[in-house]
Amino acid sequence: MSHPAPAPTHLDLSKLGQPVYRGSVQNLYAVPDHPGFVVCETTPAGSVFDVGSIFNIEGNDLNRAIFRHAMYSRLGQPETWQRVKAAIENTPMDAAWRKELLTGPLELMLERGAATHHIGMVDAVTGEIVRSGLPANPSCYNVVRRFPVMHPPQRTLLGTHVFDYAQFHQSATYVVPLEYIVRFGVTSGSSILKKYQSLSESAKRSYEQELGLSKPMGVWEMLERPIYDLTSKYEPEDRAVSKQEALMMSGLSSDDFLHTVKLAILGGWAVRELLESAGLLLWDLKWEFAVDREELLFVDTIDADSFRGTTFLDVDGRKLVIHYNKQAMRDYYRIVHPEWYAGINEAKAQAQKAGVPFKQVLKAGQAEGKWPQTPVVDIEFLDLQARKTALIREHVAAERDAAAIRSDLEATGQAEVEFYRQRGLLPALLQANAVG
User: Fold this and answer.
1) Rounded to two decimals, what is the model's pTM?
2) Residues of the chain predicted below pLDDT 50
3) What are phi and psi of 271, to 5 degrees?
4) Does the keyword ATP-binding apply (predicted)?
5) Is 271 found in the same domain as 342?
6) How far does CA 184 lie from the centroid of its chain?
7) Cβ-based neighbours of 201, under 8 Å, separated by 6 or more
């Protein structure tokens, strides 16, 4: 077992200086005198369609930070994995598949919790880094272990190119260069549904068999068992990769690679079990992992925008999906500002054709009046999104009774429906999100 340098116990936020990385939704800072650690500051900014930060959700910076701290703290607790074990044992599924999930990583986590990169949250007043439970003064600053991020160099190959992952096989400590997507169900925009719909009838049967389905795939339906897919993480574009290629890219042994796949599914179940107690359905989420010699750790952000949580509401006799994640903002722009959304897509197509950055093309086109300027979001709608993330934060931090939060989440969904109804846009919302 490796022995990382001792983690800091206090942090003077006034001495952080400038961020070493400024992102659309978080900033990263070096920790003075502790090079093996990073401070993550969440922001209230939101980003959709790759346009950058184009709206702010009040309080979302703190909600995100608290969710992250509380969820990572939960992953570190054996009790979380006892609940996951019970959930897996009580879910109907193939017996051999269940046995696979219950052996290996889960057995270790039942004893000592999961290993993660998370250290704790900084108390906004005292600067103490609180490891479990919330600080007396919660802040937007979490401290995590720092792991090397390696980008595979591009090599030419007879007029084409490949990415060289050799360095991952020669290193003992790094972030695994993959994103693990775990799916508990099929959403309307998911890549597996698009693939399925493009297949011939016989190919559909084969794909169903591959995914362990006993019936045709249906949109907004839960799968009989969770499935996972993998994408590249540090290439210029995220790329879907086969399990065989992912193993070779990872630099891990086949046993350790299997371990990370099981961790992704089990971690998904930990989030699922938490959300279900507040009445939310988890459809999919993404994980990343780091390796530190023989230890495998959960890393990266986790908040309401990292997973797809929804409820169903009966609206005008139809079953409507309500989104408790960034999808609600995407739908808002598409439905309330369709001309702007059309301009975004035109700019993306032009940028791809010309081989220049999309934002550059969009900005120039907006300056010329070719496409509409980025619209200001209705404050009423932003308030509803702030309410959603605050309720999810209250739940993960166990601030209130789950049944009360469940009722408030449903009321917020109903208020979102009324927002569209009052503007004569409910038919468009139903078209986008009604099932059947």
Assistant:
1) 0.91
2) 1-2
3) -70, -40
4) yes
5) no
6) 14
7) none
